[in-house]
Amino acid sequence: MEPVVRVGVTVSFLRMFAPPEESAPPLAGGTTVVRLAAPTCAFYRYLYDTVGGPYVWWLRRVSSPAELAAIIRHRDVSIHVLYLGGEPAGFFELDARPAPDINLSYFGLMPHAIGRGLGHAFLRAAVDEAWRVRPRILTVNTCTADHPRALPLYRRVGFRPFRQVAELWEVPVRLGMVIPPGLRV
C-alpha cells in the first residue's frame, strides 16, 4: 500500500445561474489571457503544480500522461492562461463536458502574481468566457485548503454556495507536497 498523508478539508460547492450584471473590471495593463489550442501535458502540469502546489492540488498530479491528455485536449475542455509581462501568471480551466452546464474546474494565480490586484478581473474573465457559450449553470468548488480569499472572491463575482461536504483526502507521499499542519488528519 502506498504511503499517504491524510488531509481533511471542507469543500464548498457554488453555482451561478446567470451572468453577472455589473461590468467586468478590466485586466491590468501588461496582462493578457490566451486560450491554449492544444496544451501539452508538460505545460499544463507546470501551470497546475505552480498554481496549486500551495493549496494541495493533487488529483491531476496522479493522472497518467494519457489520462491527463484526454482531459485537457477534450473538445469541451478549455485551458486559458493569464500572462503578465509575457510570463504565465495563472490559469483557468473550463469543463463543458457536463453540458448544458459548465464547471470552472481550476482557477488560480501563480505565487508571484498573488497580491497584485489581478484576481478579481481574471476571475471575471473566466466567468465571462464561460457565459459566452450560454450554459444553463456555471459551477465551481473550493475548499479549506485553497487560498483564504478564494471563497469570498467567488461570491463577489456572483457564485452562490449551495452545499458543503467534509472530505478526507489521501495524498500520496511520493508527490512531495507540503501539507499545511492544520489540514493533516
Highlighted features:
185 residues, alpha+beta, Aminopeptidase, 7-stranded mixed beta sheet, 4 helices, 7 strands, 22% helix
Question: Could you explain how this protein is built, in words?
Answer:
The chain has 185 residues and is of the alpha+beta class. The chain has one domain (4-183): Gcn5-related N-acetyltransferase (GNAT) (Aminopeptidase). The chain is 22% helix and 34% strand. It contains four helices and seven strands; from the N terminus they run ββααβββαβαβ. The protein has helices at residues 41-52, 65-72, 119-131, 150-156, and strands at residues 4-16, 31-35, 77-84, 87-95, 102-109, 138-143, 160-172. It has a seven-stranded mixed β-sheet, with helices on both faces.
CATH class: Alpha Beta
> Per CATH, which architecture?
3-Layer(aba) Sandwich
Question: Helical element count?
Answer: 4
How many domains make up the 3D coordinates? 1
Radius of gyration based on Cα positions: 16 Å
What would you call the shape?
globular
CATH names the topology as Aminopeptidase
Termini gap: 18 Å
Helix content: 10-25%
In total, the number of strands is 7
